[in-house]
């Protein structure tokens, strides 16, 4: 439906708008479905680390992504930068109570299509494979 004189559509879909209550924005799926947020900490932010590995399988789903948020460690299938991972469905999720993960890396030498080894370093100078 066109307006007179302007020729523009009246039924356009807005991605953001402002009201007196504030600004409303349409969030992308990856931002909307991300894991629980870490509570505010006045002493500083918790470090977030990301690790990638390629399993070289034939299905095209061979990339894995691991990242930590505070005391939680998440594992996902990585589908590339053009298609966001479904953050509501992790492959695995670990929550550590005593210490928090500070670094992690996949062992690229022993990777198979069935298993992946991940070395995790913790804040209490411990490590776990």
UniProtKB/TrEMBL annotation:
Entries under InterPro entries matching the protein: WD40/YVTN_repeat-like_dom_sf (IPR015943), WD_repeat_creC_regulators (IPR051362)
Q: Which UniProt keywords apply?
A: Repeat, WD repeat
Top-level division of the source organism's lineage? Eukaryota
- The protein in question is named WD repeat-containing protein 20
Organism of origin: Sciurus carolinensis (Eastern gray squirrel)
């Amino acid at each position: 439906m066109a307006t007179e004189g302007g020729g523009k559509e009246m039924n356009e879909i807005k991605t953001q708008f402002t009201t007196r209550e504030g600004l409303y924005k349409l969030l992308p799926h990856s931002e909307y479905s991300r894991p629980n947020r870490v509570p505010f900490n006045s002493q500083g932010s918790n470090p977030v680390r990301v690790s990638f590995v390629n399993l070289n399988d034939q299905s095209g789903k061979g990339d894995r992504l691991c990242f930590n948020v505070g005391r939680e460690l998440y594992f996902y299938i990585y589908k590339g930068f053009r298609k966001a991972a479904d953050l509501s469905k992790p492959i695995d999720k670990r929550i550590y109570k005593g210490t928090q993960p500070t670094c992690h890396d996949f062992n690229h030498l022993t990777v198979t299509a069935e298993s992946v080894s991940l070395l995790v370093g913790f804040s209490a100078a411990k490590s776990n494979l």
